[in-house]
User: Which sequence fits this backbone?
């Protein structure tokens, strides 16, 4: 099967803005676009195949019908393993924490959530919260959640374009106002909100918090300052392209591909590829033709033996794959 474009699922959370529509070509009737779920087979927001012979098919239907096209690395997973998003935080997100696999499978019936952020754009002085400044006790954390002072013990990190943050499950965190980023994560929507600045939704109600579950899973240890990676090490380079490894976790592997010419990729049967274009334009050319890719497009490349070329000028693409399965979902549960 040939690579195909995906049409995302959109979320209109109250903190979202207009950058995804304006700068990334997202077409939706929603007045606010907080997130576009670019590669997703999740029940809370599944994308749709947008090109090729299966155009109009829900991606979760495709994933169940053609498991061999997901690759050998996906064997042993009961569900599609990763989720890829674009996020526009016009306002700050709530302070939150995600559970690990063990807790999430037991309590939520799905994987936990370790995630990676790549900063694509930001306003002046934009920052995010990444873990704790210092070790705390559960009693202090509980007290600060109750009196609204939890941000005083969080570690603020000012951001720059290209910065990469890996947020492990259990890490308290929050994306700050004025940040646009790409997120690669486990296929999970388990989020425990602990502080939301007293905001109210469209109905005038404060959004619910999840203090009990958050206290179950939140790390109480100080987080080391995240390593800045505006230019991570080059691991593959030739005339026309430069590829950098952004992260390699037990849940996903992500690379940055800067394209100014042509890049050839020889596929194998181990894994699919997710190619998310976050800058410029490119063309994906294979044995059966070519597929145009512009800023904001996400392409699914099935596993298999066929190679392809990516050609473009000034294109910045994120390429992600799942690593080999560590444990089956039954073993994790």
Assistant:
């Amino acid at each position: 099967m040939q690579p195909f474009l995906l049409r995302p699922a959109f979320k209109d959370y109250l903190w979202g803005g207009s950058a995804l529509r304006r700068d990334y070509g997202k077409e939706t009737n929603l007045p606010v676009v907080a997130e576009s779920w670019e590669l997703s087979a999740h029940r809370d927001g599944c994308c749709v195949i947008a090109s090729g012979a299966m155009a109009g098919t829900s991606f979760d239907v495709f994933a169940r019908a053609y498991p061999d096209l997901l690759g050998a690395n996906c064997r042993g997973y009961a569900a599609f393993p990763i989720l890829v998003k674009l996020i526009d935080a016009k306002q700050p997100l709530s302070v939150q924490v995600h559970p690990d696999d063990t807790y999430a499978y037991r309590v939520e019936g799905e994987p936990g959530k370790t995630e990676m952020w790549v900063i694509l754009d930001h306003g002046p002085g934009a920052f995010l919260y990444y873990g704790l400044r210092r070790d705390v006790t559960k009693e202090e954390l509980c007290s600060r959640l109750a009196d609204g002072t939890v941000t005083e013990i969080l570690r603020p990190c000012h951001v720059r374009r290209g910065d990469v943050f890996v947020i492990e499950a259990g890490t308290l965190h929050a994306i700050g106002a004025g940040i646009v980023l790409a997120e690669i994560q486990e296929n999970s929507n388990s989020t425990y909100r602990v502080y939301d600045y007293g905001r109210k939704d469209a109905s005038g109600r404060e959004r619910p918090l999840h203090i009990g579950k958050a206290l179950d899973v939140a790390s109480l240890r100080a987080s080391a300052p995240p390593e800045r990676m505006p230019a991570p090490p080059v691991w593959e380079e030739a005339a026309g392209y430069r590829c950098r490894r952004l992260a390699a976790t037990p849940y996903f592997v992500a690379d940055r591909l800067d394209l100014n010419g042509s890049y050839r990729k020889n596929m194998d049967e181990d894994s699919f590829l997710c190619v998310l274009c976050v800058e410029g334009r490119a063309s994906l050319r294979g044995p059966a033709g070519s597929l145009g890719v512009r800023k904001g497009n996400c392409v699914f490349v099935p596993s298999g033996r066929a190679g392809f070329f990516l050609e473009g000028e000034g294109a910045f693409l994120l390429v992600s794959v799942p690593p080999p399965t560590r444990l089956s979902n039954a073993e994790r549960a």
Observations:
- Helices lie at 19-24, 59-65, 101-107, 138-147, 211-217, 329-332.
- The CA atoms of residues 173 and 228 lie 17 Å apart.
- The mean pLDDT is 92.
